[in-house]
Structures are given as structure tokens and as C-alpha cells.
């Protein structure tokens, strides 16, 4: 779909810079992108790569009709009136609408896939915020005396988004990461996931990650493992495939989820019958933390969430105070606080989950059994000891509450 008033794609300065100054990057994104967005007008400036990453989009792993920018900062979706709805992911400047002037669907026969190039009336973002030089300087590159910044990967705050940014920043392994992105896109696009064959999907994802690690270590000329790359690749692979496998996991765990709900209702009714003044213990902080499971994509993030939920549960039970300065949940004992035994920890976690399920709305149910299945099976590395302890406790609670022989 084109208009006689819109210049040819090859004549647009933004597109010219993309294919000439960033040809390797352009070749890379064609293997996984869904949209390449080209603004019609551009002042005579030389743009950094991040400007182009903000205009190239992949399918959102989380939302069906949304697409995420290559640098994972922005989201777009489309209106029926030929406009792009543009969002800042971190809730920065809200949303805006930009008119689409032209559309060209590209068929990549080599990769057996298609993507779309859109010409729009203005850039999605203010390009004045990027390094640039005037036309009079003949596009000489800017030389900085500062050392290049590579995003630091912090295991205590690792997420799907930070894993992508970290892996994408490692230029030495760019061919390996490009291949991984392409393979994951193909997996989500073509692979059929069935409840009885979920193990096949897990094995497929494990194989893709193993191949990526082998290629990366070869490019880095490393004989030993890199802990950051190992963890980031697990988070990215499982996070990318999450929305593909999640509906099947819900189907697989549906009957056990129903049993969990029914058993909790029986338990709560008996406690009310046995005690006239029965009141469910309320720990809203821990309950809210556990609800975050639905918002997290990778198994590692979910396991960390369970760990912080357990910490908040223990903190409330032992009158401990959460230390807000620590990125992980930490706490200091008050003068009245005292340590909890393992059976007390288990009981406190049981109470918390019963409280969450009993108070949940019909439309806001947290799929506790499905999260347990996903976290246990869709990971390739052992969990750190503290996180593993919390997840083992969580699994014990789920098994206890879904065991038909349990007497409530």
C-alpha cells in the first residue's frame, strides 16, 4: 500500500543510514523482526544504533497484538484508522499515535518468513536525544574518550528484559545470539505444543540454548562457562517461549488446580466450624508478591518471586522488618522476633496460599499449580540454595494441598 505523495523507501535518509551504516544489524534483525518502521523525514544527522533499535519491532512474547522494540524500551499496536499506537514500556511519557503513510510486506525466501516495512510521518521518538552530527561534518563518527558501557547483568535482579539487553550487548557473540533469536521465533511461530508432549518442547528449548552456548563459547574462545551468559540465556529462552507454552500448561494442570481450590475451601470451612472466632491471617505484602507470578515470564524470575514471598511470610510471622535498601528481600529481627522452625515455615506458607486462593476473585485467580509445573520443568540450571529452599517449600505446600489422602 503506497501513496504517490510518499517518497520511495530507498530515498529516505533513515533507511539509507540503516542499510549502509548498520548493515550487519539490518541483516540480523530480518531474521526475527515483525516490523521495520521508517520515518519519512529526518534531519541531516548521523544516528546511533539505538535509534534504529527503537524503530525495529519483534512480536511481543506477552501480548498477542503488541510488538516490542529491539532494545525492549517501547511497544506498539495498531489502530484500524492506519495509525500506530506507541507506548513507553516503563510508563514514561504515556502513549501517542503516529500516522502510517505506506506499507510494504517483505517475503524473505531464504529464511522462509515475512516482515513488514512501514513508512510513518515522523520518528517514534525524539532523535535529538541521540548522538548526532551535522551534515557539514560529512558524517564523521563521534569519538568518545569514555570507555564503552556494557549493561551489567545482576543475578539478584535478573529479568527477561535485562537478559535480552545483556546478551544483545555482547558483540562478540552476535552471530550466535542472532541465530538463537531466529530459532526461538521459528519455535513460537511453527512448533505445536501439546499437553502430552510438553517434554518434547522442553527438550527442544534446551537444545536451542545448548547450541547457543556452544557457539558463544567458540566465538569467545572460552573453555570454561560464563555464569552470566549461562543464566541470561536460560531466562531469555524460557521467557521468550513462555506465552507459547503457557496455555498448554494451564490445560495440563487444570484438574490439579481445581483440586487445590476445592481442598482449600474444605480446609477453610472446617477451620471456621472448629473455631467460632476464626479469622484468616492476613499478610497482604506476601500475598501481593505471590500474585506477581502471573506477570513473570522465566522460571528463574518465578522462583525468585517465590523466595521473596517466603521471606515476607517469615518476616511477618517473626515480627521482622524488611530491609528496603537490599535488592533482594532481607530483614532484621526486632526485639520480639524469633527464628521459625521448618514445620512452622511450611504451616505459614500453607496459610498464605489458602488466604490467597480464598480471597481471589473469579477473574484474578493465580494459577499456583501451573506456576509450580513451569518453574520446575522449564529451567536448565540448578537454583541457588536459598531460592531452591523456598521453591521446595512451595512445592511441598502444593503437593500437601492437592493430595487426596491429606486430612484437613
UniProtKB/TrEMBL annotation:
GO-annotated molecular function: guanyl-nucleotide exchange factor activity; SNARE binding
Entries under InterPro entries matching the protein: UPF0507/Ank_repeat_27, VPS9, VPS9_dom_sf
Record domain VPS9: where: 254-408
GO cellular component: early endosome; late endosome; plasma membrane; transport vesicle; tubular endosome
UniProt cross-references to Gene3D superfamilies, sorted A to Z: VPS9 domain
Biological process terms in GO annotation: early endosome to late endosome transport
Name of this chain's protein: VPS9 domain-containing protein
Origin superkingdom: Eukaryota
Organism: Adineta ricciae (Rotifer)
Amino acid at each position: 500500500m503506497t501513496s504517490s505523495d510518499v517518497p520511495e523507501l530507498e530515498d529516505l535518509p533513515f533507511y539509507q543510514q540503516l542499510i549502509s551504516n548498520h548493515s550487519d544489524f539490518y541483516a540480523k534483525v530480518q531474521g526475527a523482526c515483525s516490523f521495520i518502521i521508517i520515518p519519512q523525514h529526518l534531519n541531516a544527522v548521523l544516528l546511533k544504533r539505538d535509534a534504529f533499535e527503537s524503530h525495529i519491532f519483534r512480536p511481543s512474547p506477552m501480548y498477542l497484538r503488541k510488538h516490542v522494540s529491539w532494545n525492549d524500551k517501547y511497544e506498539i499496536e495498531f489502530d484500524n484508522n492506519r495509525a500506530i499506537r506507541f507506548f513507553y514500556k516503563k510508563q514514561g511519557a504515556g502513549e501517542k499515535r503516529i500516522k502510517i503513510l505506506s506499507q510494504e510486506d517483505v517475503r524473505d525466501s531464504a529464511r522462509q518468513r515475512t516482515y513488514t516495512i512501514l513508512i510513518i510521518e515522523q520518528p517514534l521518538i525524539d532523535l535529538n536525544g541521540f548522538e548526532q552530527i551535522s551534515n557539514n561534518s560529512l558524517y564523521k563518527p563521534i569519538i568518545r574518550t569514555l570507555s564503552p558501557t556494557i549493561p551489567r547483568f545482576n543475578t539478584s535482579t535478573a529479568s527477561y528484559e535485562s537478559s535480552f539487553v545483556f546478551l544483545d550487548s555482547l558483540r562478540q557473540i552476535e552471530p550466535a545470539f542472532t541465530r538463537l533469536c531466529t530459532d526461538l521465533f521459528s519455535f513460537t511461530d511453527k512448533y505445536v505444543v501439546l499437553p502430552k508432549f510438553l517434554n518434547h518442547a522442553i527438550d527442544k528449548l534446551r537444545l536451542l540454548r545448548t547450541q547457543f552456548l556452544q557457539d558463544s563459547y567458540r566465538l569467545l574462545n572460552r573453555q570454561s562457562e560464563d555464569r552470566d551468559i549461562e543464566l541470561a540465556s536460560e531466562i531469555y529462552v524460557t521467557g521468550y517461549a513462555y506465552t507459547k507454552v503457557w496455555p498448554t500448561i494451564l490445560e495440563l494442570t487444570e484438574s490439579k488446580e481445581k483440586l487445590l481450590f476445592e481442598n482449600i475451601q474444605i480446609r477453610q470451612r472446617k477451620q471456621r466450624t472448629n473455631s467460632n472466632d476464626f479469622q484468616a491471617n492476613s499478610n497482604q505484602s506476601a500475598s501481593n508478591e505471590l500474585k506477581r507470578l502471573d506477570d513473570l515470564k522465566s522460571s528463574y524470575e518465578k522462583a525468585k518471586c517465590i523466595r521473596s514471598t517466603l521471606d515476607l511470610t517469615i518476616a511477618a510471622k517473626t515480627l521482622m522488618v524488611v530491609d528496603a535498601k537490599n535488592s533482594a528481600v532481607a530483614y532484621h529481627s526486632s526485639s520480639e522476633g524469633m527464628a521459625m522452625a521448618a514445620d512452622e515455615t511450611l504451616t505459614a506458607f500453607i496459610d498464605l496460599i489458602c488466604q490467597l486462593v480464598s480471597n481471589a476473585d473469579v477473574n484474578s485467580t493465580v494459577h499456583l499449580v501451573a506456576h509450580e509445573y513451569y518453574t520446575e520443568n522449564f529451567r536448565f540450571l540448578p537454583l541457588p540454595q536459598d531460592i531452591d529452599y523456598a521453591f521446595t517449600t512451595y512445592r511441598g505446600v502444593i503437593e500437601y494441598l492437592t493430595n487426596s489422602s491429606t486430612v484437613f
